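Entry 14. Structure prediction run on the chain below.
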Amino acid sequence: MTPTETNPASKTDPSKSLYIKGLEGIVAGQTALSLVDGAGSQLYYRGIKIGELAEKSCFEETVYLLWFGKLPTVEELKIFKKNLATYRKIPDEIITFLKKFPPKAHPMAALRTAVSMLSFYDSDADNITPEILKKKALRLTASFPAILAAMHRIRLGKPVLAPDVKLSHAANYLYMMHGVKPGLENERALDAYLILLADHGFNASTFSARVTCSTESDMYSAVTAAIGTLKGGLHGNANQKAMEMILTIKTPERVAGYIDDLLEHKKKVMGFGHRIYKTQDPRATAFRSMASKLCEKTGKTLWMDISNRVEKVMWEKRQIPCNVDFFSASVLYILGFPTDYFTTVFAASRVAGWTAHVIEQLSDNRLIRPNAEYTGPVNQTYVPINERK
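Output returned:
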């Protein structure tokens, strides 16, 4: 989109020169973490294509890449995995508090509250020096699966499990959720999911985190703000809505009629279209293959049959490609996550990127404080209350 002048003052005051609704196309900052190449349909973490990382890397290694700017050596990765695992246990006081949450509390609202509570049990909560920030990043990234698994098991009336430091980050997540150590394929599927969603430029929740920490607030506040932003229907919960759509359709034969009805009533088909990627979301490509393999292995090919038919119909009728949310929905469902937890799994991945952006923002900080174009009246006269009509 080409920016246009909307205020006569722009000719003399550069600060009022541009207004773009939603800041679309506006460069609001710089980052060395990820490149979202919409025109080329590519996503890079520190210059490495996301598909290559999803295929060859692991979540822990990807987090190290984001935080430290390079791939670790064998010894560095070993130490990093061990350090991350030591932060998995959350305070007993938080588990006690989680048990008092209403059973029908929104999982993202519960996560937001629990993450905010973590700061109570960190004596360095307000310390924003570089080394302490990295420790907080470790704690937050390690704590998310433990918090989410505890919430899930409490909701089911099951005992909360202690983390297993011998398992990988993804395997421990599934173990703490379900009480069974996952098979290699399930572990790898969740690991790839966590890699693919870890960062994505200045998306809404990441920008929210950067705005918050730019005030020199603490990392817990920044991540809590990011969770609140991700909770929204236009950002984080599209994968939940996509799976709910697939479950509602029920059979491949009903796809065409269902999609026709949505389009006729100008309703959004969840999991399709993207603000930046116009031809193909590179993460969706990875998930398509992953979902297909998982469906075949578990014998739940119905979800893949419906998904493939929806993708075909949407392309024939609107030439709109699917995004990362569409096929990832089936992956999370097969891995045993309740649909209303899907956005929380997204958060468990994106926390690696949020914390990386907080560290980056504070390394060369300037308060993020944009201007606004005023559209209200001017030179109004105050009317005493007894004279108002």
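Strands lie at 34-37, 42-45, 48-49.
Filed with the rest of this week's runs.
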